[in-house]
Amino acid sequence: MLTKRFFKTKEEAEVTFEFVHPNAQKVELVAEFTDWKPMAMKFVKKDKAFKLKKRLPVDKQYHFKYLIDGKLWDNDNQADAYVPNNFGTENSIVNTQRLA
User: Fold this and answer.
1) pTM score of the predicted model
2) What are the chain's domains?
């Protein structure tokens, strides 16, 4: 799940990436804005979800995926869009466009 917060005085959006996987020991966010290097997500016990907050420039689109336990790839089931990648699967898209 993606949650976005926009700032009146900054040209960036705070995006919270949230992913639930019942058997995962570790979930990492892998994205264009991380140069496709995995970023560890924190497990929030009360929400039973892995979360990561990241500030991103507004009016952009970024490809991303989740890496579960270092071996299983998954998309965000509430991403803004999905696009084919070079591996025969799809990437999730997060859009930081401000809505009027």
Assistant:
1) 0.92
2) 2-95 (2.60.40.10)
